[in-house]
Amino acid sequence: MGACGAGSSLHLPTNHDAIMSDLLAGRHAVAHSSSMIRTDLLHELGGYWSLPFGEEYDLMLRIGEVAKLANLDRVLLQYRVHQPA
User: Fold this and answer.
1) pLDDT computed for residue 7 by the predictor
2) Of 10, 54, 67, 85, which residue is the least packed, with the fewest Cβ within 10 Å?
3) Residue 51 and residue 25: Cα distance in Å, rounded?
4) Is residue 30 exposed (0-12), middle (13-18) or buried (19+ Cβ within 10 Å)?
5) Any residues with CB less than 8 A from the CB of 29 and at least 6 apart, and which?
6) What's the rounded Cα separation, in Å, for the pair 9 and 46?
7) Helix 16-24 crosses helix 55-66 at what angle (to 10 degrees)?
8) pTM listed for this prediction
9) What pLDDT is attached to residue 3?
10) What CA–CA distance (Å, rounded) separates 14 from 25?
11) CB 78 within 8 A of CB 2
């Protein structure tokens, strides 16, 4: 745990339609740091595009157009919270 404890659990949608709906509405819908994506799909889509910000958001939208997105219904990732420098 970090100096400020553990981060709070995310309550993310679990099925493709709900995830896409949240992404299109600009809401957080995928824990990118714990995503598992097939390498061949990343290559097919051209990987991350060089954007000023939101590369991971863009990638998830592009993946959702050609494949099904899903989140597990349990927490498998925790992150540390530290005081700002």
Assistant:
1) 56
2) 85
3) 19
4) buried
5) 12, 13, 18, 19, 20, 22, 23, 60, 69, 71
6) 31
7) 140
8) 0.78
9) 61
10) 16
11) no
Whole-number Å distance between alpha carbons of 23 and 17: 10
Q: Residue 69 and residue 17: Cα distance in Å, rounded? A: 8
| CA 38 – CA 59 distance, rounded (Å) | 13
For the chain, the three-class secondary structure string (H helix, E strand, C coil) is CECCEECCCCCCCCCHHHHHHHHHCCCCCCCHHHCCCCHHHHHHHCCCCCCCCCHHHHHHHHHHHHCCCCCCCCCCCCCECCCCC
The torsion angle over the Cα atoms of residues 78, 79, 80 and 85, rounded to 10 degrees, is -170
